[in-house]
Amino acid sequence: MRTALKLGAYALGLVAVFAAAAGVGSIAGPAPAPAAHSDTRHSATTPTTAGHDAFAYLPGGLQVAEDGYRLQPLTTTLGTTGAAPFRFRVLGPDARPVTGYAVSHDKELHLIVVRRDLSGFQHLHPQRDPDGTWSVPLAVATPGQYRVFADFQPAGHGRPLTLGVDVPAPGDYQPAALPAPQRTATVDGYTVALDGALTPGTASKLTLTVTRGDAPVTDLQPYLGAYGHLVALRDGDLAYLHVHPDGAPGDGHTAAGPHVTFFAEVPSAGTYRLFLDFQHAGTVRTAEFTAVAGTAPATGHGEPGHTHS
After folding, report:
1. What angle do CA 55, 57, 63 make, to 5 degrees?
2. Which of 40, 220, 225, 305 has the fewest CB atoms inside 10 Å of its own CB, making it the most exposed?
3. Is residue 229 part of a domain?
4. Is residue 246 in some structural domain?
């Protein structure tokens, strides 16, 4: 989980390359000019330059295995009647459980769980046993097929990885329609307003403003070393992207609200679901948005795409 938006496309065992030309995207309404800033994690061999109209990358979360590392669920189903331990391992190139990890935003590993229709989002932080087995209490609200993403960096490995795997919750699955694009979201009496637009193939500035009642929230609390965390998932394949805001608590220039700014780089046109985690008054809350990234006319530079995680 890093300082800019990185997006991973999901399909178990699938290796795909996405073409992305620079274009104008919208969440709801006209798109402003994108900011020329991005710090994207690249997992392919072709580097990406923010603002360039052609870039190549393989999105994170697309695969169950990458660079010799594999996500191995030990729990094979999820329950809807109460929390139960969800257990898994990350196997290394030697086929043994990984026991050494770099710390990113105060944690060795971040676990994202979401149903295939992009409902039921959870951002969790499991505990690791010395033998490399991770465990976290987990319950989902409704039956369905869930995607589980592990976001981590093995110790000594040159870059972070995001691996994904499907885990079912047995029962009568009734898919929910994706909410329409919107500029505001409410959660527990808080309103979060979204300003900015997604532009495929380049960095896009997104500013989220948190208010409570009619008052701006100016005392957001650091959560995992930041004033906000943003995850984006692409509708259709659950391509994964995790971002952190511009600036950090205590850096001398980043205010504790009401504005939290991110720089997002998405690899293609499409519909995305955005999940913002923020902490205030000792509680972490999640605001959810639907956003649409559009496409500009072809420039003749369409190249297969790459990711950040």
Report:
1. 165
2. 225
3. yes
4. yes
**pLDDT tens per residue, range 124-170:** 999 999 999 999 999 999 999 999 999 999 999 999 999 999 999 99
d(CA 61, CA 239): 7
Is 230 a member of any domain? yes
pTM: 0.78
Q: Which of 252, 139, 276, 137 is nearest to 196 (CA)?
A: 276
Strands 69-73, 65-66: pairing kind: antiparallel
**Cα(164)–Cα(186) distance, integer angstroms:** 29
Show the 3-state SS of 20-88: CECCCCECCCCCCCCCCCCCCCCCCCCCCCCCCCECCCCCCCCCCEECCEEEEECCCCCCCCCCEEEEE
Q: What's 195's domain CATH number?
A: 2.60.40.10
Domain membership of residue 129 (yes or no) is no
* Cα separation, 85 vs 99, whole angstroms: 19
pLDDT-wise least confident of 40-54, 75-89, 249-263: 40-54
Q: How far is Cα 27 from Cα 31, in angstroms, rounded to an integer? A: 8
CA–CA dist 132, 130 (Å, integer): 5
Domain containing 212 equals 184-293
Cα 52 to Cα 118: distance, rounded to the nearest angstrom: 30
Query: What tokens were used for 24?
Result: 């104008």
Number of domains in the chain: 1
